[in-house]
Specification:
single chain; 102 residues; mainly alpha; 3 helices; elongated
């Protein structure tokens, strides 16, 4: 690859075809924000519930079947469950100054 080709690749597009779209932030009210936060946490709790059931079934099935792979899948689900819990705990305080939105 020649110097001219490299320079051509690094220059900005003249017609802005490669430029990212402008970031437009909505100016929704705090009531909308709280509803969105509440929905996000409900979804996260649903996900944690699903991963709990998945881990329990996979570990129990792996033990009954004597399958190391199935048991490992269940243990992996426990790791995902722990990370989801850590994220929830870390973001609850920053989501809103109010604590009753959950």
């Amino acid at each position: 690859m020649g110097h001219a080709q490299i320079e051509e690749m690094t220059t900005t597009c003249v017609d802005e075809c490669c430029a990212p779209p402008a970031l437009v932030l909505s100016s929704k009210s705090s009531g909308d924000r709280e509803a969105l936060i509440r929905d996000a946490f409900r979804l996260e709790w649903l996900t944690i519930g699903w991963m709990s059931v998945e881990a329990a079934i996979a570990i129990a099935s792996g033990i009954v079947a004597g399958s190391l792979v199935l048991t490992a899948f269940g243990l992996d689900s426990l790791i995902e469950l722990a990370s989801g819990g850590v994220i929830d705990v870390a973001t609850i305080g920053r989501a809103s100054p109010r604590t009753d939105i959950l």
